[in-house]
Structures are given as C-alpha cells and as structure tokens.
Write a structure and sequence with these properties.
6 helices; 215 residues; mainly alpha; 3 strands; binds zinc ion
Length: 215
C-alpha cells in the first residue's frame, strides 16, 4: 500500500490544473471588460458563482475517484467500491463539505466565495489599478480552490476508511518534492480513525494508510 501513496493526490492535482485554466479564462474576461459600476457588481458576482459551480463539479469527481481508490486499497473489489461510491459520494456530500466552516481553513468555502467577490467589487470601485486587483483576487481564489481540492481528497479518504471498517491509520508524509517539513514529527504515527489530528498547515499533502490488524 505505501508505495502507491503518491497516487492519492493525482485526482486533486488534475482538478487543480483544470480549475486554474478555467479561472485564467474567467478572470481574463473580466480584465477585458468595461468597469462601469453596475456592471462590476454583476460581473464579479457572476464570475465567482460560475467558478464555484465549476469547482463543485471537479470536487465531486475528485471525491468519487479517491473514495473508490481507498476502498480498493482496503480490499474492496472494484464493482462494490463503485456501487458504494454512487451511494455515498453525492453532490449533497460535496455540498455539505463546502457549506460549513472547515476546521483547517477556518472558513466555509461558500461563504468565503461570496466574501471574495464582495472584496473584489470594493477594490475595483476604489482603485484605478483594476488589473492588478483582479490578478491579486485570482491568486487568492486559486489558493482557496487548491486547498479545498486537498480537503475534499482527505474527507473522501476518511469516509472510505470509515466505510471499509478501518479503525486505525498511520500518518505518512509525502515522499516527493512537496513533502511537508512541518509534519515530520507526525510521520509514521498511528491514530484511531476518529483521533487523526487536523492537518497542521495549508497545502499539507500528508496522507494516511490503513493499519490492518494483521500488520
Ligand atoms: Zn503535511
């Protein structure tokens, strides 16, 4: 199992790439538009709404893929894993993650999307440096989208472990170029599923592998 650990964020990484492309286009269109006051509110609100909708679809795909992957790691056959995913990983499941304040980011995805839209509207009406403000907003929004791609991956994995009846997991830091320096002390530690600590920092790509009683 551990040798496959690097594949767990590949759905997440693909989603981030797609979202970045979508957002470059959306924010690019905004940059190219005229900035009369009424238009700005409508356009910016619309932009964040569209982008959040797109993200929701990507997160659903990520969660589904990760959930199936983890179930199969735990010994579930592919057909059963897909059936379980169809039942568990629904649009509603994704929506519930995005609605409530997340314990790591400390905000709700949905509420923060609205706040970010409002802030950009304010910035655009307050400054002549509109392109700079739009670029800044894109950067911050991409950061949120990227973090939630990780969050969705993690929630889907934990859901799969729970549904597979796994009781204990081991914390594993990623052995790639993105390894988290802050998480070193957690590497290799075993936790009951319900006691796994929160990830210590944004962008943390540590993961958990099942501890089977026969190990
Ligand atoms: Zn980490």
């Amino acid at each position: 199992m551990p040798e496959k650990i690097d594949t767990v964020y590949s759905a997440c990484d693909r989603a981030i790439k797609v979202m970045n492309r979508e957002n470059l286009k959306l924010f690019g269109q905004l940059k190219a538009s005229r900035f009369d006051e009424l238009n700005v509110i409508r356009k910016v609100t619309e932009l964040y709404r569209t982008s959040a909708e797109n993200a929701r679809k990507r997160y659903y795909e990520v969660a589904f893929e990760v959930y199936v992957l983890i179930l199969m790691w735990c010994g579930t056959d592919a057909k059963t894993a897909h059936e379980m995913a169809e039942r568990t990983i629904t649009e509603k499941w994704v929506a519930s993650i995005l609605k409530d304040p997340d314990l790591m980011t400390l905000y709700s995805f949905d509420a923060e999307a609205e706040r970010k839209a409002q802030r950009l509207v304010e910035a655009l009406s307050a400054t002549e440096w509109k392109i700079r403000e739009i670029d800044k907003a894109l950067k911050l929004w991409s950061r949120q989208l990227g973090q939630y791609a990780i969050n969705v991956t993690d929630y889907a994995a934990m859901q799969a472990y729970e549904d597979a009846g796994i009781e204990k997991v081991q914390w594993v830091t990623q052995k790639d170029e993105k390894v988290c320096a802050d998480c070193g002390p957690l590497d290799g530690k075993v936790f009951l599923l319900q006691d796994v600590p929160l990830k210590p920092h944004w962008g943390c790509r540590c993961f958990w592998i099942a501890v089977l009683e026969t190990d």
